[in-house]
Description:
By secondary structure, the chain is an alpha+beta fold.
Amino acid sequence: xxxxxxxxxxxxxxxxxxYIRRRxxxxxxxxxxxxxxxxVRVEDIPGAGDSLDTSCRIQAExxxxxxxxxxxxxxxxxxxxxxxxxxxxxxxxxRSLVSARAVSSAPRETSIGSYSRKEALP
Length: 122
């Protein structure tokens, strides 16, 4: 898995990057070859009143189609935002794979040719 983790705050980079990578590996690791590049962006955004909320945005590439799945979670607690976003991207990824399998395994109509029977009029 290729992870691109971007964190706005300098003092959180070391421990938070490790935490995010561990959460992503736990959530998305089972998808293996179906998973392309994963991008994570963590930033502070203005919340209600004087508080700051933390936004965690995750983009994951579904292979071989190259479809990009996106999820975002916002919470006052940084680790809760990361947990929610990783959980959501895992569910989105699983749903996408299930729907792709359903489409590929659906019975296809085949045309054998047309057959018509002409009946003689009395």
